[in-house]
Amino acid sequence: MVASVDRAVVGRPDDIIDGTRNDGAIDGDEGAPLMPSPRRNVRLDGNYVVRERNPNPSNPNAAVLVLFQLGQDSTSLRATSVLLAHLVKVPCFSTLRTTEQLGYLVSSGQYIANNVIYLSMSVQSNKYSPLHLQSRLDAFCDSFRVHLQTLSGDLFQQHQAAVVAQLMEAPKTYEEESARLWHEIAGETYEFDRREQVAAVVPTVTLADVVDVVDTKLAGVATRHRLCVQIFAPTDDMHMDGEEEGATVIVDRAEFKRHLGLFPARTRISAGAIPLAKL
């Protein structure tokens, strides 16, 4: 993420897409629940923009973070999205960082929050406004589909094999192994073999599957569900309620959340119901 600009804003997109209040209630509900509700993300129904100013007056950087909402978490979507993220990573960096030289920090990857899967892309720059950065990200998404069409079957299979190898790679440290386990424990999902499950599905994902996600979820203006966080440099002109072609600028975050539906919460499993084979 673009932590060096504003970790509180760009590094924590969960605060924008999370539909639960701090007390655990769902925005729009009457009163707080007796027990905190599981966190649930808003179901985006179009293209949205959040605009913030870099709060550090001595930091000249602007940035943009784009979250493409792909859908509810599942093993099949995890497999498709992790393969998509692998395919996007090098072209995204080489196009935006090396060729166009938009900024020093360019990143992309799979992002999962509260039972919802996203593809994220971010750029930080001290030369260009976030509006320009976003326009170049949009152009990259359009060109990436053309790039996918040039992939041969053999090369696509090599990408699949590389993703499977990454998923099946053993933890290098005790800390990494512990983090994997505690992620499942904290979420009360206990799918300790989740990486193996996803790795088994990756070889079944076709290039057509990936192209369909790019067409409908990334490049398709009318069909994608996208959140853009634009961070303006201290010296940039910024209009909080300015128009954004094909998108809605969020002025009131609470109101934004109230009018949207929510994804289901993650299914939680009682520790006593876990098969011994998974322990």
Automatic annotation (TrEMBL):
Residues 14-36 are annotated as: Disordered. Residues 83-182 form the Coenzyme PQQ synthesis protein F-like C-terminal lobe domain. GO terms for molecular function: metal ion binding; metalloendopeptidase activity. It holds the Pfam family PqqF-like_C_4. InterPro entries: Metalloenz_LuxS/M16, Peptidase_M16, PqqF-like_C_4. One of its GO terms (cellular component) is cytosol. GO terms for biological process: peptide catabolic process; proteolysis involved in protein catabolic process. It comes from the Eukaryota. Keywords: Metal-binding. This is Coenzyme PQQ synthesis protein F-like C-terminal lobe domain-containing protein. It comes from Aphanomyces astaci (Crayfish plague agent).
